[in-house]
Amino acid sequence: MVKPRELKVKPIKNGTVIDHITANKALAVLKILGIPSKKSAVTIAMNVPSSQMGNKDIVKIEGRELAPKEVDKIALIAPQATINIVRDYEIVEKGKVDLLKQIKDILNCLNPNCITNTEEPVTTRFYVMGKKPVILRCYYCERIMDEGEIESQL
Ligand code: CTP
Ligand code: ZN
């Protein structure tokens, strides 16, 4: 029996392909995007071989493009992800998520005494201390947020 060299996942017609997701983070990406929903067809590949990354996840969503805030959240759990926008089977735009040096107004600080939790108009702000895994430090109270804490808030 002939063994196929590569298992290709079916192309999509219109929508978004999120590729190069950190292996096994596809479900966290889906949670960020509010999937499952009744609207979109979704294809997921988890822990598949990648020449660049060893292993990676892929999420394909028919008929949907992502909001900037969703892309910023994906960067926090999959800093190497690429976002491909597909129209009529062609990739019309290819971009990378961007993990900035500071993360503003996306996550809450878990220190109950932090000024961001006590003074109403102060919005949250974190320094990115590490990218592999992502580690954040609160700009105000210096509390460290680890990957698990970040993921549980997204
Ligand atoms: N893709 C898809 N449907 C299409 C076109 C592309 O699902 N109509 C998917 C491909 O399966 C792949 C991703 O979109 O997972 C990116 O496609 P492409 O840029 O052609 O692949 P690569 O060159 O390998 O991407 P990169 O350079 O980002 O590694
Ligand atoms: Zn804080």
In words, what does this structure look like?
The structure is a single chain. The chain is an alpha+beta fold. The protein folds into 2 domains: 15-96, 2-Layer Sandwich (Alpha-Beta Plaits); 102-153, Aspartate carbamoyltransferase regulatory subunit, C-terminal domain (SH3 type barrels, Roll). 18% of the residues lie in helices and 36% in strands. The protein has 4 helices and 9 strands, in the order βαββαβββαβββα. It has helices at residues 26-32, 68-77, 115-118, 147-153; strands spanning 15-22, 42-50, 54-62, 82-87, 90-96, 102-104, 125-131, 134-138, 144-145. The protein has a 5-stranded antiparallel β-sheet, covered by helices on one side. The chain has a 4-stranded antiparallel β-sheet with strand order 6-7-8-9. The longest helix has 10 residues, at 68-77. The chain is elongated. Zinc ion binds at residues 109, 111, 114, 116, 138, 140-141, 143.
What would you say about this model in short?
The protein has 154 residues and is α+β, with helices and mostly antiparallel strands.
In this structure, how is the largest beta sheet organized? 5 strands, antiparallel
Order of helices and strands: EHEEHEEEHEEEH
The H-level CATH homologous superfamily of the largest domain, spelled out, is: Aspartate carbamoyltransferase regulatory subunit, N-terminal domain
Number of spatially distinct domains: 2
**Helical run tally:** 4
Q: For this entry, what is the oligomeric state of its chains?
A: single chain
